[in-house]
């Protein structure tokens, strides 16, 4: 595509079009630049892309897009814009011929439940014989093909390239987890959604958003944008958990019909006769078009909400209730979401991604429901992230567990013992709390499992599906599920 065509429509503060070259690709990382690529300088949180303009040019960039006026080598076209992140989204969408306009787009946002809800919606569309694309925390999928993941929601250039690949492979519906970061940082600009789903909102990411009000406003952006989709035919829907306190603000941002789901408030999609067991949940889903009895292989009240959200999307799309029922009942689990590690031991071992106060409380409530003995919780908190939630999670774990094993999560650049001390501030608020500190996560898991007795539940929380641990600048292989299996092997030999 010609550089002039990519620049058309942008709000340019200044421009120097030395040569109207054919652009062969778009990159925001200078290491990914090839001959005749457009390089977009992004101001990141750890580094500034403007520092790498010379490197990008040396690697073959024919033009650069800037947010700050910095020297550009002679003979290279450049343009200055107010926001290079927004410009990257707009230019990437144009470069890949607006792929989001060619498929049904469903966005799922919320603090907890995005991954499971997105997987359930994806299962419904697949059962409805639609070819789907899935973009999320665990993996991206094009039909049956699984692709790796770097961010919950990719950067806009990567996202538009992925969507273009999906469109080229005749994907009919895309289900995407949409993070608050993605909404604020323009990653989903030019992704025109047909349906937006709100799961819940609890404390998380305040290191980025500053306060809960700004966090709510970030989530609301997805719903405010629904009315802007004039490209795809069909009615637009907002699907909202009305039991969540943030629901009113989310619905206030909507200018399209709202499908409300919940258990407590008046809702269009609701659950009756809920029964929770260790093996799953059963309930009757009451909808605007009829009722279905569901027996899921997912357990916990939080999964009742996730399933109701998926039912609501199916109903909004006029998918038969029988199809919705068959799809949901065939989902056997989601990696790292209340995932059982079973090697025949006389107690339960559960791995879960819970890394927020509300998420940890929900999963502990479910774990308590299925244990006849003690509840032993292994958890930590991530470094370089919201410090305010650390004592909150410490208090929750100490209050709801019979034994809390405080350890490391992904400490990143922080000293692990400093993170643990923040957690212990909350643990110590609980009178007579039983806890131990084991900074080494592998050893913490081993000690917890080796101390378990018949009827106990060992919950390993925080990392879920992740197969790595970030310590300093190193990304090391580490999988809670593998470590649990290894510890169970040690126990069997004892």
UniProtKB/TrEMBL annotation:
Cell compartment(s), UniProt: Cytoplasm
Modified residues (N6-carboxylysine): 219
Matches recorded under Gene3D superfamilies: Mur ligase, C-terminal domain, Mur-like, catalytic domain, MurE/MurF, N-terminal domain
Residue sites binding ATP per the record: 110-116
Key word Cell inner membrane present: no
InterPro entries (UniProt xref): Mur-like_cat_sf, Mur_ligase_C, Mur_ligase_C_dom_sf, Mur_ligase_cen, Mur_ligase_N, MurE/MurF_N, UDP-N-AcMur-Glu-dNH2Pim_ligase
This protein's pathway: Cell wall biogenesis; peptidoglycan biosynthesis
Modifications the protein undergoes after translation, according to the UniProt entry: Carboxylation is probably crucial for Mg(2+) binding and, consequently, for the gamma-phosphate positioning of ATP.
UniProt keyword Cytoplasm present: yes
PANTHER family referenced in this protein's UniProt entry, alphabetically: MUR LIGASE FAMILY MEMBER (PTHR23135), UDP-N-ACETYLMURAMOYL-L-ALANYL-D-GLUTAMATE--2,6-DIAMINOPIMELATE LIGASE MURE HOMOLOG, CHLOROPLASTIC (PTHR23135:SF4)
Record protein name field: UDP-N-acetylmuramoyl-L-alanyl-D-glutamate--2,6-diaminopimelate ligase
């Amino acid at each position: 595509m010609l550089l002039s065509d990519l620049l058309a429509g942008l709000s340019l503060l200044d421009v120097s079009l030395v040569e109207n070259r054919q652009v062969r690709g778009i990159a925001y990382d200078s290491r990914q630049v090839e001959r005749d690529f457009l390089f977009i300088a992004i101001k990141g949180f750890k580094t500034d892309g403007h520092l790498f303009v010379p490197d990008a040019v040396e690697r073959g960039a024919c033009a650069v897009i800037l947010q700050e006026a910095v020297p550009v080598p002679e003979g290279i076209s450049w343009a200055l814009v107010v926001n290079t992140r927004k410009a990257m989204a707009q230019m990437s969408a144009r470069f890949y011929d607006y792929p989001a306009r060619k498929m049904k787009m469903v966005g799922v946002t919320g603090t907890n439940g995005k991954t499971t809800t997105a997987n359930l919606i994806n299962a419904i569309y697949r059962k409805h014989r639609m070819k789907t694309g899935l973009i999320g925390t665990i993996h991206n999928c094009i039909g049956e093909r699984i692709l790796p993941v770097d961010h919950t929601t990719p950067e806009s250039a990567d996202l538009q390239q992925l969507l273009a690949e999906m469109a080229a492979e005749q994907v009919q519906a895309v289900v995407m987890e949409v993070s608050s970061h993605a909404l604020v940082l323009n990653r989903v600009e030019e992704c025109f959604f047909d349906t937006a789903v709100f799961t819940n909102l609890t404390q998380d990411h305040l290191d980025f958003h500053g306060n809960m009000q700004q966090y709510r406003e970030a989530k609301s952006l997805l719903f405010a944008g629904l009315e802007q989709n004039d490209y795809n035919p069909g009615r637009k829907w907002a699907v909202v958990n009305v039991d969540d306190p943030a629901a009113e603000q989310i619905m206030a941002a909507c200018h399209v019909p709202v499908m409300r789901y919940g258990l407590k408030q008046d809702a269009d999609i609701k659950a009756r006769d809920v029964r929770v067991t260790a093996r799953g949940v059963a309930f009757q889903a009451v909808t605007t078009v009829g009722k279905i009895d569901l027996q899921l292989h997912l357990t916990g009240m939080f999964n009742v909400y996730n399933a109701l959200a998926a039912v609501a999307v199916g109903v909004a799309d006029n998918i038969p209730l029988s199809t919705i029922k068959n799809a949901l009942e065939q989902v056997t689990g989601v990696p790292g979401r209340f995932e059982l590690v079973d090697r025949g031991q006389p107690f339960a071992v559960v791995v879960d991604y819970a890394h927020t106060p509300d998420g940890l409380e929900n999963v502990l409530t479910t774990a308590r429901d299925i244990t006849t003995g003690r509840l032993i919780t292994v958890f930590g908190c991530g470094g370089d992230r919201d410090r305010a939630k650390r004592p909150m999670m410490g208090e929750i774990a100490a209050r709801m567990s019979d034994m809390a094993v405080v350890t490391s999560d992904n400490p990143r650049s922080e000293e692990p013992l400093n993170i643990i001390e923040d957690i212990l501030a909350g643990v110590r608020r609980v009178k007579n709390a039983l806890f131990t500190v084991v900074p080494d996560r592998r050893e913490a898991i081993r000690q917890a499992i080796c101390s378990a007795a018949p009827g106990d539940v060992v919950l390993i929380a925080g990392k879920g599906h992740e197969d790595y641990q970030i310590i300093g600048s190193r990304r090391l292989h580490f999988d809670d599920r593998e470590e649990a299996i290894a510890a169970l092997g040690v126990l069997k030999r004892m």
